[in-house]
Structure prediction request, 710 residues.
Amino acid sequence: MIKVITGNDAAAYGALLSRPGIVCAYPITPQSQIPEKLAYFHGRGELEGRFVNVESEMAALGYVTGAAIGGARVFTATSSQGLAWMHEGLHWAAGARLPIVMVNVNRPLGAPWNLTCDQIDSLSQRDTGWMQFYCETNQEILDTVIQAYRISETLSLPAMVCLDGVYLSYLSETVHIPDQDMVDRYLPPLNPGHKIQGGGWKLYDILPPDRDPHAGDFMADRYELHKRASQCLTTATACDDAFRELFGRGYAPVEEYRCRGAHTILVMSGSAVGTARDVVDRLREEGHGVGLLKIRMFRPFPKDLIREKLKGKKKVAVIERDLSPGQGGIFCQELKWALCGEPEAPEVYGLISGLGGADITPYLITKAAHFVMDSDQCPRDAIWLGLPKRKHPDEYDGSIITIQ
Amino acid sequence: MSMTDQSLRYSDQEFIRPPHGFCPGCGVALALRYFLKAVGDRVILVTPPGCSAPSISFPKPSLVGPKGLIDVIHCPFGSSAIFAGGIKAALETKGDTETQVIAWAGDGATFDIGFGALSAAAQRNENIIYVCYDNEAYMNTGNQKSGSTPGSSNTTTTVAHKNAGNGEKDLLWIMMGHDVPYAATATIAYPDDLMAKARKAAGINGFRLFHILTPCVPGWKYPPHLTVKLSKLAVQTGLFPLAEYEKAGGLTLKKKGREKPLEEYVRFQGRFKGIDLKDLEKWKAAVKRRWHRLNRVSGISDNSLS
Prediction:
């Protein structure tokens, strides 16, 4: 079935088709239509599982964590402040090795209030042990939710599917909604790796029964979590291959777009990737050697893939919708870390753009590409792309590079 | 008041197997022992941070039934009612309606950090038993003031009886306001009563609350052999009314109580040393108000409600 639907509806359809036993909800802008849509499905009898309205995001995550302990497939969704309110629970769910799928609609945190788009909310949760996927289109949202269940349940680790607030959550696109029996073929019923009642699962959360729950084992436990997380890329790729085979479409953890023969590569994630594709097309037509790398999987960071795909490139421009104040962009940090020590690694330009829902326009991306291509010195600090012009330009520190 | 069931009291089923980590004379250990005797081992215990979670986990798992270790799930501090609800919901969707999921939480986890979660779980009528074992402060972290600490008590954060607030928060009353299917108070000085209530609650569906007073040797500062005596005095002085609320039958209040002066209870405990007489009078007045409130409601008989 082909429908024109919003990103929020796409997320809800992805959850519906995955047949969760327990869905938990707490509203927050710009995510609220996801629980609303699932409540609608539930009201019509299409969603067979339970739909539970809870009192906070902490409760939403805690409830599905409890339900995952009880062996149910679970779903919840949140955004921004709500995700921060879950922070403790995020660590808990990953530490307990529970297969949980959650959608996060990317929105910044106050102060000041901002209800639009920024990826800082989920990027701030990068060290919790959750896998993170960033979607470009509404179709990708629906498909990624379904894929996330298979990946999460294969590894017994939680997964977060991220989509840009407003740009994806509220805007409609054509989405192919797969048939239930196709999804059932891709995603068999959950067979949890643990059994809560009658043995197997004992003290200290979800450690294997032969594990002594002493503090000294914590480090060994974290080592195992780290090791398991490092399998995510292989598992995610295998799950995508299987998806591609059944549905005829798929999404690489790191996707190259017109990178062959390019010397300068734009690195982006989320909804702005679509805009960047058009910009790259135009720049290539004009004869510029510019390509695009889309990072879909952020946690664990696919460092080997990125090293491989940036091999031999001269310059990289990371354009991102987040800021670690005083430091720069988070994708940029991760990418620099991946490239550190590589022989003849490309220069990495970090560009901050689109914070708090500001538009990352074709004009800005084009300007950024030209700036990077023309530059003969790579600045160490972040470049501000699209910083609004003020009446008194002096208000900005002269040492900051801005592209407007 | 609940019928006394002697067979429960003398059941030789024991589910706490030493070594466990409870202090000598710990009221919580007794409460847990009696509670499990009453509801059996087909349970999952959800324990937030507090005295119980480490005490039944270290130095080794110490809750054991005939079929092996009893399932214990640790959870974040404010999440006991939430986790318990989620676990129970999952079990029910998988066809298990027998297993009792029990949130076993202290007063800090109940009166303070998990209060919103408790209220919401009660309002949703989650099919769980929520037990608040109340030792009237954050005893696991070394005796800091909680929302259940009496206003005139010394703790490490209410030094010289300062900064304690008024100290009144009637959990049973609040839960009655949620119209839960079942809510009861109990102390370990009356194990027959405690176990009969626990067994009755196990036969009821929906949200069930227990508020169990559990004296704490190091926190309340009294010799270990007085744990049961203090539990009894808390009832006899009227400080801790033994009550039972059922949605169908209303509130049943054990009328006995207040036959001894509050001073009897206070004088055995180091935490009240140097208590201001004015504070004691204020406290007595609060106890009186509580009884007045409960008495008004408990006058409504089974029939007039149904």
Notes: Residues 198-209 of chain A have pLDDT under 50 and may be disordered. Chain A is about 35% helix and 20% strand.
